[in-house]
Amino acid sequence: MAESGGTARNRSAPESSAPEHRAPERSTLDRRGFIRLAGGTALGTALTGTGTGAGAAQAAPGAPATARPLPRASLPPLPPLPDQLSGGMVTPPAPSVRAPRPDGTPATAAVRAARPDALPFAFHGNGYTATELPERLRPWRDRPTPWSAVTPDTTHTYLDPDGVIMYRPRRSAPGYDQPVTQIQFGLGCAAAYRTATNPARRALYLRRAKAQAKRLIDRRVEARGAWYFPYPFDFTHGSHSGISYRAPWYSGMAQGEAISLFVQLSLLDGVTPEERALYRTAADGAFASLLRSDDGEPWVVNRDDEGYLWIQEYPVDPPGTSDRTYNGMIFAMFGLWDYARMTGNTLAARLYDGACTTVDHYFPTLRNRRWASYYCLTHRIPAPSYHQHHINLYRQLHWQTGSPRFAHMSDLLTDDHPSGILPEGSPVVLDAGTHTLYRYDTDADGDFVAARGDAELARRTVSFPRTTRATANRRRRIMGRGVAYRIDSGPHAGWWAGESHPRCYLLGEYLPSDYRPGRTLTFPAGSVVTCHRYGADGGTTATRTVTFDRASGAPFDRRSVVDGRPMCRIAGGALEGFWVHAGDVVTDGR
Q1: β-pair partners for 456
Q2: Dihedral of alpha carbons 217, 221, 227, 233, sign
Q3: Predicted confidence band at 144 (pLDDT cuts at 50, 70, 90)?
Q4: How far is Cα 518 from Cα 502, in angstroms, rounded to an integer?
Q5: 10 Å Cβ neighbour count for 468?
């Protein structure tokens, strides 16, 4: 999706629309199993209080006899799905170009070809597989359409008489079919249908999802033995060179997402046998488009000069000049996961492996250390409004593949540029002593504005005779600086305090990531590491200091910002339920 350069969020999105991230299945390792997994006798002696390990638990001053765990933290609401056409200009199709007719038949006779039955070319693969997932972790389950949006009427979107969402450049302009908008609306309605309990609402959600699928099927273009979903308008992007399309044009993002819509609809209980067969035929047709390379028209898949597979959100000729857009690639990959899981198709499995391998290989080019990640490989434009999408997409790739590599990448992105949203009244602890507070040039809520660049406007020094609490409404990285809290109450409201545990920290748990399967952390040999147990108020209720003669591992199933530091929750053995600072251990060998 195209980056607009802004950082606007849907401030009206209800909290209830955020996905529920429950803890993954708890490890059932017993004490002996944990010791064996964690490295043998070194950890065993440490935890039993013999040998050289220091393993005695120490109660924090004033801690209750029985510690209650931290209250369940939730992720901030996902930002709204970005507009694929943002930053560009939509215009009516040029008269010299014959777009598909309203009845869906191509304007020019399609050259029928046999359905492809082989990979389009050789590409790199690392052996990633599409693993089975619980329902709640599958693609698009985190994006249910809220009831308030089931009949959209906004500046850019509205429903036509068939119940199909249409895109318009402005309210006074005619509307167009926009495949990605229609597909994502259909997927959101399908997600809401699965969890809705009101029969009337379920029926409308299903009707909306079916309407989007029908429009795609009716307007498809059949070429090269595959189904393609055309964009019937001209489009030029303002800052991404090469994106200048004349209708009809095609997007790999739409092709991959369409597979998800057709597969997911075919699995719903509310579809008829005839509809189920149609949706599976449509999924086959859309999948075939990912088996056609860039040696003919249309195309959405190619291989770069290093031999890596790309599903191009914005295909551009010559192919080497395409954007290589990260979010569009991964959203399309979710369709491969859906298709591979439903059909067991070996070609889909190999394409999924190749796409995961590409995303893995190019992660260093996506990452922008200590700031927002880049939108695409070609233009390398930092994209604050896409960064949270990247975090979520890599988290989902971890679930889908079971690989800790993608979880580690999501961790790095979270630390580089964390979501700034905090629940109302989030407590900040400031230790006794002197602190420097800052004012930065932001918007009224404390969010980043590109034109202002977080410029420092003022600073003040304050002293507290004792530990003090304030509340904050933002925790985010300041451009070119560290993470800071925007105080929103008392005499220092509007000022920012830099995060620095234990001098200044946000009390409690924030930005949680659950792992499925669990991951492994390693205590370095000879290091003194303190583990913490927390109570319901976020305060430390117990500590345990451990030292190991040799590097020793432990399973962990959750990583969060706890008391202003990234912490990992140990998931088995004598340290189960304790948290350890991520900076004191190595995770998954990194």
Answers
A1: 440
A2: negative
A3: very high
A4: 29
A5: 16
